[in-house]
Design goal:
Blueprint (H helix, E strand, L loop, with lengths): L8 H9 L1 H9 L7 E2 H21 L6 H16 L6 E2 L5 H17 L6 E10 L14 E9 L3 E6 L14 H14 L5 E8 L5 E7 L3 H19 L18 H6 L4 H9 L2
Parallel strand pairs: 1-2, 5-6
Antiparallel strand pairs: 3-4, 4-5, 6-7
Helix pairs in contact: 1-2, 3-4, 3-5, 4-5, 6-7
Length: 271
């Protein structure tokens, strides 16, 4: 089987969590008949934050009302416009989440923050082992949510509950951003801040601060190499009962899955 066109933190984490969903999304590229409320909410929050940060980078701090308008327009387009396909856990969740989004953005707007260097910084880079110089034949791709002056990376999430601090050392996305930052700017980030806009009953913002070094980049390289091997070999297994199952848009395809015979045959014939 052909290797992936590129790796990303999201793709790596997905393969490690449920490689069958990785296959449906990245190999078979099955259409998404539904969109989870988690994905839709995160998209709308990120759209508003990116718009705010781009404006602040230009030296303009727009009124809060304009930031909320960006969120509301994106949220409406995803949830209310004709053809909307967001799947909510309960009736009335669209209005409740709309309120929580406005509340979280209001809280974030008044927080003291560093000066914006750039927002939504896209990259496509070789994934190289920092000690041996070995390079994968598949590039690493992604986008950093925010870079502040003084070498600070900020990543935003909009989860239902605050992520445990114990997950931070193994966060693949944080490691990927730190790796990309060093490749782009020739130095490690001074700080990586993971900001959770938590949409609990009483919405709140919880930041976590961490860092990365070359040992983390070595592990990222090994993970990337093994995921590429797995994809090339046609290894795709369901992970029934994991947290992704709750609102998985590929549940019917997973229910009908009977194995990867075709993928294994193709991988063997390509050798």
């Amino acid at each position: 089987m052909r290797p992936p066109e590129a790796l990303s933190a999201t793709a790596l984490q997905l393969y490690l969590t449920c490689s069958l969903k990785y296959r449906f999304q990245y190999v078979d590229r099955l259409p998404r008949l539904t969109l989870s409320e988690n994905q839709a909410f995160g998209t709308a929050i990120h759209a508003a934050l990116n718009w705010l940060h781009k404006a602040r980078r230009r030296g303009h701090n727009p009124p809060l009302a304009e930031v909320l308008q960006v969120f509301e327009a994106d949220w409406y387009a995803q949830t209310q416009a004709e053809g909307a396909k967001v799947q909510f856990d309960e009736a009335g969740d669209a209005a409740a989440l709309g309120y929580k989004g406005r509340e979280l953005l209001t809280q974030y707007y008044v927080l003291p923050t560093g000066r914006v260097f750039d927002s939504e910084v896209w990259f496509t880079l070789p994934l190289v082992h920092p000690a041996t110089g070995e390079s994968l034949d598949v590039p690493l791709r992604g986008a950093m949510d925010l870079i502040e002056v003084d070498d600070v990376i900020v990543e935003f999430k909009a989860p239902k509950r605050a992520p445990p601090i114990t997950d931070l050392p193994d966060d693949i996305q944080v490691t990927t951003y730190a790796y990309a930052y060093e490749k782009l700017f020739g130095k490690l980030p001074r700080e990586i801040r993971k900001v959770a806009l938590v949409r609990t009953k009483v919405p709140r913002i919880e930041p976590q601060i961490t860092g990365r070094d070359h040992k983390d980049f070595e592990r990222l390289f090994h993970l990337g190499r093994e995921v590429v091997k797995g994809v090339r070999s046609g290894v795709f297994l369901p992970s029934r009962g994991c947290w992704l199952c709750t609102d998985c848009e590929y549940r019917p395809d997973c229910d009908e899955w009977t194995g990867n015979e075709e993928e294994i045959s193709n991988a063997q014939s390509a050798r």
